[in-house]
Amino acid sequence: MQATNKLGKRGEDEACELLIKKGHAILERNYRCGHLEIDIISIDSDGLHFVEVKTRMAPVCAEPEENVTLLKQKRIVKAAQTYLNGMKNAKLQGDSEVNFDVVAVTFDGGEVTAEYFPNAWLPIFV
Question: Is pTM, for the whole model, over 0.85?
Answer without folding.
Answer: yes
